[in-house]
């Protein structure tokens, strides 16, 4: 049997998994993260895997299991339920488990680039020596992290989901981890305040940019650069100024423009979908019905 390396990459980590891969974001145009989910065997006697350079969180999406972990020669164990969280340390680990429910076992694995965590720490005004620590416990509980993992899992299953939405989620998740799971100087220390009187003007500039580029894949970092703000600070002040997250705002403008085009032009539904930034007509129709209560064709016929 080949020797397990001490560390491996996120892309290579998949070869050490025992389960059947269900979802993967590897082929998506996502930045700074990879998400995979697996249907796991009901019993696994031993699974040896290297550590990971990227920050990796896992959660149980269905079923329940008795999970055991050998890290540094010591076995620890815990009974894991849906939304329980655990992490993969940057060191080789041995795992074994067996199901303790009648439901199939499935897991979600989220890998976040260390560079993104460092970038968000800088944006938050935290020092460069901060480390994320989750303690030695086999599992930890955090409803917000579990909800974010579930949202990213849903996005990975939806081929038409927006990169802006995913960017917003992963930046918020990194900020949450730094705020509550990092050590170094005070986690609540903030950087110098920016002149808030300039914020409304900057947000108006971003709104003008969004309106002029609805067909583009509008990433949170790109919008933040238009405002001259960090991604973390931009997301917070944008919601404060508009009452919506950047993703909600972009989606609303896209649907409003689509409705106008359905009324005023004879473009096909696919032409309109692509023209306002959707990847395909199917995803556009789902979002349009969610926003307007009817399909695009029904809306057009209604006049």
Automatic annotation (TrEMBL):
Domain HTH araC/xylS-type: 204-302
The keyword DNA-binding appears for this protein: yes
Annotated protein name in UniProt: Transcriptional regulator, AraC family
Alphabetic keyword roster: Activator, DNA-binding, Transcription, Transcription regulation
Organismal lineage: Bacteria, Pseudomonadati, Pseudomonadota, Betaproteobacteria, Burkholderiales
Cited InterPro entries: AraC_XylS_family_regulators (IPR050204), Homeodomain-like_sf (IPR009057), HTH-like (IPR037923), HTH_AraC (IPR018060), HTH_AraC-typ_CS (IPR018062), Tscrpt_reg_AraC-type_HTH (IPR020449)
Gene Ontology MF terms: DNA-binding transcription factor activity; sequence-specific DNA binding
């Amino acid at each position: 049997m080949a020797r397990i390396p001490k560390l491996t990459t996120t892309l290579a980590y998949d070869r050490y998994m025992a389960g059947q891969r269900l979802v993967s974001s590897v082929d998506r145009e996502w930045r700074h993260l990879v998400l995979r989910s697996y249907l796991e065997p009901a019993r696994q006697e031993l699974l040896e895997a290297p550590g990971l350079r990227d920050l990796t969180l896992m959660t149980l999406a269905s079923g329940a299991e008795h999970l055991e972990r050998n890290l540094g020669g010591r076995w620890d164990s815990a009974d894991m339920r849906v939304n329980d969280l655990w992490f993969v340390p940057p060191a080789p680990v041995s795992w074994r488990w067996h199901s303790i429910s009648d439901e199939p076992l499935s897991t979600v694995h989220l890998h976040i680039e260390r560079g993104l965590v460092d970038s968000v720490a800088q944006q938050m005004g935290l020092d460069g020596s901060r480390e994320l620590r989750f303690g030695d416990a086999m599992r930890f509980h955090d409803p917000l992290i579990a909800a974010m993992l579930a949202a990213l899992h849903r996005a990975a299953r939806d081929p038409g989901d927006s990169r802006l939405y995913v960017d917003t989620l992963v930046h918020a998740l990194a900020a949450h981890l730094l705020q509550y799971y990092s050590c170094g100087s005070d986690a609540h220390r903030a950087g110098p305040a920016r002149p808030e009187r300039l914020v409304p003007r900057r947000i108006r500039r971003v709104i003008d940019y969004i309106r002029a580029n609805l067909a583009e894949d509008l990433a949170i970092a790109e919008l933040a650069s238009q405002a001259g703000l960090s991604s973390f600070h931009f997301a917070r002040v944008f919601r404060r100024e508009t009452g919506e997250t950047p993703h909600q705002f972009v989606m609303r403008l896209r649907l409003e423009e689509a409705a106008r085009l359905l009324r005023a032009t004879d473009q096909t539904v696919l032409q309109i979908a692509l023209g306002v930034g959707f990847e395909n007509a199917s995803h556009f129709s789902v979002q349009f019905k969610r926003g307007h209560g009817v399909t695009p064709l029904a809306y057009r016929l209604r006049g």
